[in-house]
TrEMBL record:
This is NB-ARC domain-containing protein. The keyword Iron does not apply. One of its GO terms (biological process) is defense response. It comes from the Eukaryota. InterPro entries: NB-ARC, P-loop_NTPase. SUPFAM superfamilies: P-loop containing nucleoside triphosphate hydrolases.
Length: 77
């Protein structure tokens, strides 16, 4: 199904540790905005376990928002 970046944080439980770890990757110099390289982070897991939701939480994370001037959500089937 096509997805959007919209997430209702009020109904998401846990994921604090995963979010913290992935946030470090996203804002790090290796994969972050200040690097010329394009970084890719793969979130792998069984269907429905919450991969896209975790990506949404990161996309809307305040620290991630601060790091990038421009962001875009792309959904590829
Ligand atoms: N931490 C969470 N707390 C509450 N609900 C959650 C959580 N993570 C995911 N969900 C809910 O579980 C459902 C499946 O989540 P999601 O679509 O992120 O899974 P997915 O791993 O991306 O699935 P798929 O493999 O089909 O792409 C959604 O309705 C989502 O809102
Ligand atoms: Mg998904």
């Amino acid at each position: 199904m096509p997805t959007s970046s919209v997430v209702d944080k009020a109904v998401i439980y846990g994921r604090d540790d995963e979010r913290k770890k992935l946030r470090e990757y996203v804002v790090s110099e290796d994969v972050g905005a200040s690097s010329n390289k394009i970084g890719v982070i793969a979130i792998v897991g069984m269907g429905g376990i919450g991969k896209t939701t975790l990506a949404k939480l990161l996309y809307n994370d305040d620290e991630v928002k601060d790091k990038f001037d421009l962001k875009a959500w792309a959904c590829v089937s």
